[in-house]
Amino acid sequence: MAEAVDILFINPGDRKQTYQDLGDEFSAIEPPVFAGLYATYVRGKGLSAAIYDAPAMGASADMVARVATEDFNAKLIVIVVYGLQPSASTQNMSAAGAIAEKIRDADPEAKIMMTGTHPSALPLRTMREEAVDFVCDLEGPATIYKTHQAIQSRANDYSGVPSLWWRDGGKIIPPTSAEPLITNLDEEMPGIAWDLLPMDRYRAHNWHSFDHIDERSPYASIHTSLGCPYHCSFCCINSPFGKSSYRMWNPETVIKEIDFLVENFGVKNIKFVDEMFVLNKRHVHGICDLLKTRDYDVNIWAYARVDSVQDEFLDGLKAAGVNWLCLGIESASDHVRDGALKKYGNDDIIDVARRIQGAGINIIGNYIFGLPDDNVPRMQETLDLALELNCEFANFYSAMAYPGSQLYDSAVAGGLELPDTWQDFSQHGYNAKPLSNDHCSAADILEFRDNAFDTYFTHQPYLDLVNNKFGPDVVDHIERMRAIPLARKLLEERNAA
Fold first, then answer.
1. In terms of pTM, does the model score above 0.70?
2. DSSP string of 101-117?
3. Rg value, the chain, Cα
4. According to CATH, what is the number of the domain 206-399+434-496?
5. Where does residue 107 rank: exposed (0-12), middle (13-18), buried (19+ CB within 10 A)?
6. pLDDT over 90 (residue 335)
7. What is the C-alpha to C-alpha distance for residues 132 and 144, in angstroms, rounded to an integer?
8. Which of 180, 243, 396, 421 is spaced 20 to 30 Å from 18 by Cα?
9. What are the sequence ranges of the domains in the chain?
10. What stretch of H or E contains 398?
């Protein structure tokens, strides 16, 4: 057995389950940013840490358990159930649960914790259903560290650890206090523990590298801020923070991490994972101004909102290497968008998109079908808007009631049918099961989403745009992507009936 490590962080996930055959070539392989940040935090407290990234390694639950129990003699094993989008936490719970169970079988004495968006949203249920000793119901780093210290004390009493659910024999004990959010990110979590990650295994999203489609690696994802001040009804991003919030690393800290990635790993493709990067003027300008002083050929993408993009941002973003912005357009229906707490009109969307493209920045448009009050005509309006906007890429989603979101709370209160298993929350998975509404069944919404994907990526004006901007090789790439069918259990069952 290898030398003992204080804390082993495990990133769970199953790329095949999540993306089906699209995962072989077209999806990104993302570094586990929260596991990396937490490793940095506990190292700063004097502890040793290791990370095992299951999806990057292509590892099954059995393999993860074998590595965890044979290669690491960890005092605490933390399964970090996050993803690079909020939904990825819940869809990863099936893999996380299997890993916990296999570790428990291999070593009944192992101390296992779960943390992340989903466990923080449903801590009691997670404790009841999963083979874990602990669940952290808020941010994580300080609770993880204090749990390790309590284990070291051998007192078998965790009542003094804030935000920690634990077991006392057969009884589940809730926390008696909440751990405050970290206020000094620059000192306590000044970046990801990149030396603990298999950096040669990560790759960018295919569209992120349309300018260099055969150079998707090396790749990195980093946070420049945590949380989001908005309250979109379908989003669960703030569940681990307990409230809407927005904390930023200083621009100098962000640039130091980018310097490290470029100089040590040759990283070119970078994702700013922030739920909302284009927001705070001082923050955005500070990072862009520092990036412009570097002689880096970086290719960055980040999230923005239609109502957060201002002209004064655009030239600086482009000059800093931000070549893509992701806009949460969601729906063409004002009524549906208002229900999702996004109050702007289609003219605003079109205007902002054209100004972004006019600055030389590409757009990924995000659209959701099946939000409450959506119906087939309104979903068609959304697809028509997507075709009119003709963004350089588009993501089409089905409405899902993710735990931690207002949509989930409303669905539970209204007795709506939710997915049978956590993996059914995967947008591209075989078991995907959207949330039905008063106008559309889950199957109707899923079928519309899949047909919309096919329509968009065979639309000749879109293919012409891609050919003119990125060349015929990228058109070929898109056609191969579109030709891969997604098997859907829900539609198979409906057709069979």
1. yes
2. HHHHHH-TT--EEEEEH
3. 22
4. 3.80.30.20
5. middle
6. no
7. 14
8. 243
9. 7-173, 206-399+434-496
10. strand 393-398
